[in-house]
């Protein structure tokens, strides 16, 4: 009993330590964002001037717009491609199934920087180089394995008898897909889309290699800013994104139930 108690205490202490390790950078970012003395700590007051400067910057607003469009398109394409692939892998047994799954998941095995450089070299050789199409292709390929993994797990939890019952009463494959399959795996689709969007929004290596002039995503704009500016505007922007992420979690919880989304 004594060993069990000590083990439980050690596990709880380690969990609290890891939570503190993860929360500490977020807390520092938020404190710096409202500190009048830029990066000097401890803070000596409260100000929202850094937030005003961040949200009045045309460069950052343009980068947010690019990242928003890029994230939405990449997440949509990734899920549109991953869904039929997941259905084929879950519903069918065929020779080479493991190899096909390995190929589809292979972007996770390659470091993102190497993948980005290789993709850039390939597009240069075929005559594209950096551009909007290569940027979308890179983001979509990068996030699609995550969508495939989540949707595969959701389809494994779907009882095939539901779809069989729909087809037995005359529903075609398309009607069954939209009336039975997609509604049942809705939480998986939400979590998959959200994860793909977040990964695309935060991606830096692919964006820095493939982004064309005029289509620079926010991570690249932020990196360019902090190389030459020494103030807390970057912290205010990061703090804003943290708060927006928390708001997005609340919205997901209201729409679909956060616990159901995380379980899927």
TrEMBL record:
This is ABC transporter permease. One of its GO terms (biological process) is transmembrane transport. Keywords: Cell inner membrane, Cell membrane, Membrane, Plasmid, Transmembrane, Transmembrane helix, Transport. It is a multi-pass membrane protein. It is found in: Cell inner membrane; Cell membrane. It comes from Paracoccus pantotrophus (Thiosphaera pantotropha). Belongs to the binding-protein-dependent transport system permease family. GO terms for cellular component: plasma membrane.
